[in-house]
Amino acid sequence: MPQIDLAGAGVQPATAVAKPKVVARDVNVHYGEKHALHNVSIDIPEQAVTAFIGPSGCGKSTFLRCINRMNDTIASCRVTGRIELDGEDIYDRSLDVVQLRARVGMVFQKPNPFPKSIYENVAYGPRIHGLAQSKAELDEIVERSLKRASLFEEVKDRLDAPGTGLSGGQQQRLCIARAIAVSPEVILMDEPCSALDPIATARIEELIDELRENYTIVIVTHSMQQAARVSQRTAFFHLGKLVEQGPTEHIFTTPEDKRTQDYITGRFG
Ligand SMILES: Nc1ncnc2c1ncn2[C@@H]1O[C@H](COP(=O)(O)OP(=O)(O)OP(=O)(O)O)[C@@H](O)[C@H]1O
Ligand SMILES: [Mg+2]
């Protein structure tokens, strides 16, 4: 990993982590005139879950979208600073964004299966990325992805049925299977459980815990309990700034910043 120059005003030192997968330095985001993110620096470790928490509008989704360049799709959005994936600048002009988004997958708040069969929802990515040489190979990827998303047993007899016909929790697991199918290295989840009931939420949380063995996971959540349950590291955002970050236990028990303390004790947000 190349040495990154942290000199310069206003740069927060990111607390170092073992084996960072994603390294962000001094990231600023503007939507037109609006300065939505200020000098965000963070190291996101591999094989761990990092939670982004903070009040509505503080920039959690904005920063999450920087990590796979989803903000490129918003015309007014301008991103500056540096973000590296395995030491490689993801904003480098020679970088293939389609390839980046296969390496850094995303799961959204509202389950959004394609209006296609369960099978096709999962097969779509591997097919466009040429990951299977034959139908048998594709079948195997679909089955493996559905198993990893702990959905296979529930849908194995109806793979040709529409994905949109599943329950909300099943649809979200289908979206996770779809994200996994292209063998990403990082999975970004933006409030993946906010549309789910407690039972479906518990299943997704268990799944996230299993997935962290193989992936780097970043989850945005409004639930402090969820952040405490599923993450090893937590970053607290407030008014476009990353106020505090560190081991989850530390953030929830002995936060250093008053704003973090107020948020986790429910005083605002
Ligand atoms: N597409 C956009 N165009 C203009 N402004 C935007 C856009 N998306 C977000 N913003 C602004 O950027 C700031 C950060 O928004 P963001 O969606 O990242 O917050 P958030 O922390 O994810 O909030 P929430 O918890 O409500 O999802 C807000 O002030 C928001 O209004
Ligand atoms: Mg958001």
Automatic annotation (TrEMBL):
SUPFAM superfamilies: P-loop containing nucleoside triphosphate hydrolases. Pfam families: ABC_tran. This is Phosphate ABC transporter ATP-binding protein PstB. InterPro entries: AAA+_ATPase, ABC_transporter-like_ATP-bd, ABC_transporter-like_CS, P-loop_NTPase, PstB-like. The keyword ATP-binding applies. GO terms for molecular function: ATP binding. It comes from the Bacteria. Belongs to the ABC transporter superfamily. Keywords: ATP-binding, Nucleotide-binding, Phosphate transport, Transport. Residues 22-264 form the ABC transporter domain. PROSITE patterns: ABC_TRANSPORTER_1, ABC_TRANSPORTER_2.
